[in-house]
């Protein structure tokens, strides 16, 4: 592109020199043209050196190089148009000047729009990656809570399936709890052999037990003794006795309910994050479609610019023919 622009500038300068000073040879105009040519040649050489040093800098470097080349092309085109207006050179153009300038502005605007869309798409992708990491952490936490809940269920089942009382046979056929048997005399209730410690529920159980099993204290037959009240199962809490401490199963059930509520909250949060992730994906797809459309528009504009370059080449050939005819 720079070679074509340089060649067109050379031909314009030659034509201007031939038209402006065919015989007299005005030195001022020629020196002015030489100054313009030297400035343009220095600018072109600077652009070439800059482009050669930044060719292998990746995609960002290529985009910057393309932007700089387009800016330089716009500036050189403006210089050419100013020189044409100054020296009164006109040539038939396939596109009107207003439309050509509009094409140039559209190219620059679309390039800036593409850069903005790419940065927006990159930020959206970073947000998506962060949301994926958050969802992964929530899934890991949910799995750990689920494993803990299963462990608590297993512990609760094992505690509920184990028998609360161990059966021990006696000569009288009465099934007593291990806590009731004294170490000295197996089979006899502990509350008959030794007094209970203060604050024990056995203070309240002892009279009832004496009323239920009178033969144990008198040495008589159990079957012949009359019970004033129906005999409860050994180990049951009599009426009027203090309540027992809460069993471990109750605390396990409370912990299970709490973990279940926590899992429900995590599920709701996971659903919200999934919905947000789907929304971000839709926005990213929309941005990609918009970017593709702008890239297609940019490609069409580049084709129009290539057509303009070919038209400029035809103009240069026409100038060559005119110069050849003028020299003859």
TrEMBL record:
Record key words, sorted = Coiled coil, Signal
Q: Where are the transmembrane segments?
A: none
Residues in the signal sequence: 1-25
Report the source organism. Oncorhynchus mykiss (Rainbow trout)
Asked if the keyword Signal belongs to this entry, the reply reads: yes
Tell me the domain of life: Eukaryota
Q: What is this protein called?
A: Harmonin-binding protein USHBP1 PDZ-binding domain-containing protein
Q: Where is this region: Disordered?
A: 220-255
Q: Which InterPro entries does the record associate with it? A: USBP1-like, USHBP1_PDZ-bd
């Amino acid at each position: 592109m720079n070679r074509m622009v340089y060649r067109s500038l050379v031909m314009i300068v030659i034509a201007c020199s031939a038209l402006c000073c065919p015989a007299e040879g005005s030195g001022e105009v020629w020196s002015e043209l030489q100054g313009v040519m030297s400035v343009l040649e220095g600018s072109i050489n600077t652009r070439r050196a800059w482009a050669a040093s930044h060719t292998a800098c990746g995609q960002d470097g290529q985009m910057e190089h393309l932007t700089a080349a387009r800016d330089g092309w716009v500036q050189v085109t403006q210089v050419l148009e100013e020189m044409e207006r100054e020296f009164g050179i006109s040539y038939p153009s396939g596109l009107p000047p207003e439309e050509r300038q509009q094409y140039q502005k559209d190219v620059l605007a679309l390039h800036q729009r593409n850069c903005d869309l790419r940065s927006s798409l990159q930020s959206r992708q970073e947000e998506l990656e962060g949301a994926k990491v958050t969802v992964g952490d929530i899934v890991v936490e949910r799995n750990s809570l689920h494993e803990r809940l299963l462990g608590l269920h297993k512990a609760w089942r094992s505690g509920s399936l184990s028998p609360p009382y161990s059966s021990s046979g006696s000569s009288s056929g009465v099934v007593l709890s291990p806590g009731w048997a004294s170490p000295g005399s197996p089979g006899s209730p502990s509350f008959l052999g030794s007094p209970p410690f203060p604050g024990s529920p056995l203070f309240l159980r002892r009279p009832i037990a004496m009323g239920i099993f009178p033969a144990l204290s008198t040495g008589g037959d159990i079957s012949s003794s009359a019970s004033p009240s129906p005999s409860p199962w050994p180990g049951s809490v009599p009426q009027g006795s203090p309540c027992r401490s809460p069993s471990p199963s109750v605390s396990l059930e409370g912990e299970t309910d709490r973990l279940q509520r926590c899992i429900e909250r995590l599920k709701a949060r996971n659903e919200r994050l999934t919905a947000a992730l789907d929304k971000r994906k839709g926005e990213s797809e929309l941005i990609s479609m918009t970017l593709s459309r702008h890239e297609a528009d940019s490609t069409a504009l580049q084709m129009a610019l290539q057509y303009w370059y070919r038209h400029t080449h035809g103009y240069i050939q026409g100038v060559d023919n005119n110069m050849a005819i003028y020299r003859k």
